[in-house]
Design goal:
The protein is of the alpha+beta class and 261 residues long. It is built from four helices and 15 strands.
């Protein structure tokens, strides 16, 4: 019996003659987060949005929560990088600029050091949040199958990078990167995590993430003690997550889920 389920050329601007009364000079325009979202939702090409950011003064809100909101609104990674590079309120320059030093991930001491996974986006670390999942076991004809089940066929956290970089406090053993399978009959995502066969006088039971579901990764140890995790190969479009492999003993646990578009 199943267990009950709990649960983002030059700019294409309308040509306006500067000689008309009330016309506003392009130099007076200041881009904000909302301006970028408006251009993205209007379907402007990514290259056009980036050109607009580079050629116009801006006053972007680049706090972590704001970057997350931009990502959820459909803003691509390259546009986010352009926004971070533009900074907050910096006027565009026509002179050749010297290469900027790498931007700090966050203010000193701002990164959490326990139970957290970040994605590196445009020089900033964006915190990911875990999704609750349930362990469901089906019994039939002396056989059992256990699956981790998450609500919804797609994760809310979406990325376009094929080889994203993550910073994690978990080792690859404690939180392996896995691919999730969209449900066939239900609005969910699944990961097979156990199977067994039972006979009148004994049986077998296997538990754990199957090797075929794990995504190979490259891991480096950060000087601060974090694990820098990068998929060894480009990720195909689909649903993925870092599963806390030891957290399902009581029938539920957590997965840091994301989707690749």
């Amino acid at each position: 019996m199943k267990m009950t389920r709990v649960v983002l050329t030059l700019i294409l601007v309308a040509a306006v003659s500067l000689s008309l009364p009330g016309a506003t000079s392009l130099a007076q325009e200041v881009l904000t987060n909302d301006s970028v979202i408006q251009m993205v939702k209007a379907g402007l090409p990514e290259a056009v949005v980036i050109a607009k950011i580079k050629s116009t003064s801006s006053k972007f809100d680049l706090k972590t929560d704001s970057l997350v909101s931009l990502k959820k609104a459909g803003v691509s990674d390259k546009v986010l990088e352009a926004m971070v590079a533009a900074g907050s309120g910096a006027a565009p320059s026509t002179a050749a600029a010297a290469p900027a030093p790498p931007a700090p991930a966050l203010a000193a001491g701002a990164l959490k050091t326990q139970d957290v996974i970040y994605q590196l986006v445009g020089g900033k670390f964006v915190e990911m949040f875990p999704t609750s999942a349930n362990l469901e076991t089906n019994m039939a004809f002396f056989q059992s199958k256990s699956e981790v089940v998450l609500e919804g066929k797609k994760a809310q956290y979406r990325i376009s990078e094929k080889q994203p970089v993550f910073l994690s406090t978990y080792s690859s053993t404690d939180a392996p990167l896995v691919r999730l399978k969209p449900g066939d009959e239900h609005n969910d995502r699944n990961l097979k995590i156990g199977s067994g066969a039972f006979m009148p006088f004994g049986g077998t039971q296997k538990m754990g993430v199957r090797n075929e579901d794990k995504i190979p990764v490259t891991i480096e140890r950060d000087p601060r003690g974090f694990y820098k995790v990068t998929p060894s190969a480009a990720l195909a479009p689909g649903e993925y997550g870092f599963i806390l492999a030891t957290g399902f003993g009581a029938g539920s646990g957590k997965i840091y889920d994301f989707g690749v578009d």
